[in-house]
Amino acid sequence: MSWDPGPDSLDFELNPYGHSLVFSSRYYQLLGKRKDLPIYACKEQFMTAIEKSQVVLVEGKVGSGKTTQVPQWCVEFVHGHRYQSGIVGCAEPADLVTCAVAQRVTDEMDLVFGEEVGYCTALEDFSTQETILRFVNDSVLLREIAVDPLLERYGVIILDEVQRRTVATDLTMALLGDILSQRSDMRVVVVTTSIQAGNFQSYIGACEVVKVPGAGDSTTEIQHTQDVVHDGKCVEEAVKRVTDIHANDGDNGDILVFLADEKEVQEACRRLRDVDDLPAPLQIIPVFPSLSHNQLHGLYDVPDEEQEPTGQGLEEHPGNEDTPEEVVENDGNETEDSAHDGDEEDDDTISGERPRKVIVATDIADSCLVVDTVGFVVDSGRVRQEVFNARVRATQDLVSLISRLSADQRADLASLRPGKPGKCFRLYPEDFTEDLAAFPNPEIHRVNLTPWILLLKRLGVEDLLKFDFPDPPATEFLSGAMNQLKHLDAVDETGCLTDLGAIMSEFPVDPQLARTIIASCEYGCCEDILTIAALLTVPPVFLRPPEAAQAADDVRRRKFARAGSDHLALINVYHAFRQNYQDELWCSSNYLNFDALRMTDDIRQYFGAILERLELGPCEDSEPKTEEERVKNIKRALAEGYFMQVAHDLDGTGNYFIVKETQVVQLHPTTCLDSNPGWVLYHEFVLSERNYITTLTEIEPQWLFDIAPKYFDPTNLPQGEARRRFHSILVKSELAVPGKPAREWAGPGVAQPAAPRNFHSQAGRGPVQHGQMRERKEEDDDDSKLCVVS
DNA sequence: GTTCCCTGA
């Protein structure tokens, strides 16, 4: 380790953690601000608590400084113990926040971003062996448990924003209980805006509790509308409210607007830019989760070169800063990873009068991103969330009302300016607040659990009913997930992980897709399936801007459509993108998402590296000889994973039946299919105005018997058309045993599950070894063994 | 004749 053990107090003049031993003036400048944070008064209490207790629960309102200060205190703790138990890991619920907080904390500690303090998200690992404080995305931490079951590199784990109740945080909290019992030297710090949001105290049991007193010197005045504002009117109403505030409320605090989703945010920003009779210019800043952290332009004031005139010794922090009036809790300080690539931001600066900011955000800004120059909040009270319908196994994106906790947090954000009161305008009537749920609904209650359950199985959880979930999901969710995993042969009849399931769990994708990737080795179409898998994993590649919808449709169908398969169309897009030198302009003129396509290669190579590591690869003898055979093999490989997601044409009118669910669905209009094939496999079933299945490939029903004979045994199917059809297919196929009545076809010896396949994997070579996950860069260079597709 | 993606890398 490259730092010297030093004094335990950060107030000492030498930096105990960094290479350069003397603190910069910037450090003191930030320290002054840190001392004003409400949480600063709790430091001693916290340090005593963590010495004494394995688990510390910290509760504090938004803006109290929890997210930036607690990790630093934990570093002091592990430093004091000479890192004997490990370093500090801090789990955050979103990538945007993970990186932003890491940058801010690096700055406050006067260290080097990516060295002593680093971060790790799905896409990036910006940390080293020397890192002592590592911010990680919560699902990345959960996956780390698979390779490091006792999380031995960490002496302290911080779970931040626990009240958001992401699946990954919930599961990690449950698993940590077990880890702590085996590691008496480890500490866990649970950080939340509200202990009540999950009965955390009774869930955790014995622990020390640190409650941060409220800031208290200013409160938010809240106004409600008289009437309900309907979904379609929210954007308009919010824009009107912003222009009103700007025209009439002179104290010039910034304005923070909460809308339901990215689409509304973009729409509101567009309208605000179009308003032409403003008394003074506004700086419009959209914020939503899929922004990359270097797109948070202007959220925090960034003087860049123009530092406060104090600046000596700031070389280590090019571009990192913020103004004195800003405290950032989780904040992203602005910018772009200066440390990554030195990208310069030429934002407006706050020299003199800066324009008033209007930050238009989704719920990601409820608690994770704090801007303390805000004086006005406009809250639509809504959020768009994915809701999984376990009965029909379909996702639905619904706009729902936020919880009272979120509503209160949003209001609190209006009064973080020292000594100045704030105002919150809620776009809903006052009596609505009584109908709001008190706390956010845990995500584990509303998403498809199949991938998460596979991960738990991989982590050695035997009995899910006995697993200590903070809030157990409905048994319907658990059994639905287990059934899917059984059909996929990922777990056996007794619920134990199979060898195939262990292999599937290596892939950071849905189990169906993992199964398809593995199957592609047998069908000699790895390269094509890896391309499809990568494209199904990145954000949608086809764009459809409202003003050019027709043109986008035309291009998609003319240039990329391929008979009978949207999946094959994706392959066409990928190759066309490469043939056109991965050109951004080419993408926009073809209505393709450049950012998504640019990510595809990395992900594709990563999946390929997993196959290699597992010693799974294309079988030479299964290489397709003809184009026709190649297409057929791709489709069959898809069917190996997605056989539970097939639908058949009911009557030639475009109404399709989902085989097992007796649901009638339509093919989504964006499909490239130009006719209505008899049988299709789909990637997703979305419930919206109508029931649609999307990303489709035509298949032959006979394949389904080969792949999953038991699943498609007619006697297991509901009464109806699908059953009749399978019956007749079966009669024609050689599987039919003459003279036996149909209902016995599923009997022993006739339609057994497919024999376990040889996955070319060496027995006993299962789990990933620690560290392999990040070694891919080297591996990738010699994957020449995988064939290249024309 | 029109869903949005919190996340895995």
TrEMBL record:
GO terms for biological process: mRNA processing; RNA splicing. Gene3D superfamilies: 1.20.120.1080, P-loop containing nucleotide triphosphate hydrolases (3.40.50.300). Its EC number is 3.6.4.13. Transmembrane segments: none annotated. It catalyses: ATP + H2O = ADP + phosphate + H(+). Keywords: ATP-binding, Helicase, Hydrolase, mRNA processing, mRNA splicing, Nucleotide-binding. SMART domains: DEXDc (SM00487), HA2 (SM00847). Residues 35-225 form the Helicase ATP-binding domain. The keyword Hydrolase applies. InterPro entries: DEAD-box_helicase_OB_fold, HA2_WH, Helicase-assoc_dom, Helicase_ATP-bd, P-loop_NTPase. GO terms for molecular function: ATP binding; hydrolase activity; RNA binding; RNA helicase activity. Residues 302-355, 740-790 are annotated as: Disordered. GO terms for cellular component: spliceosomal complex. Residues 322-350 have a biased composition (Acidic residues). It is an enzyme of class 3 (hydrolase). This is RNA helicase.
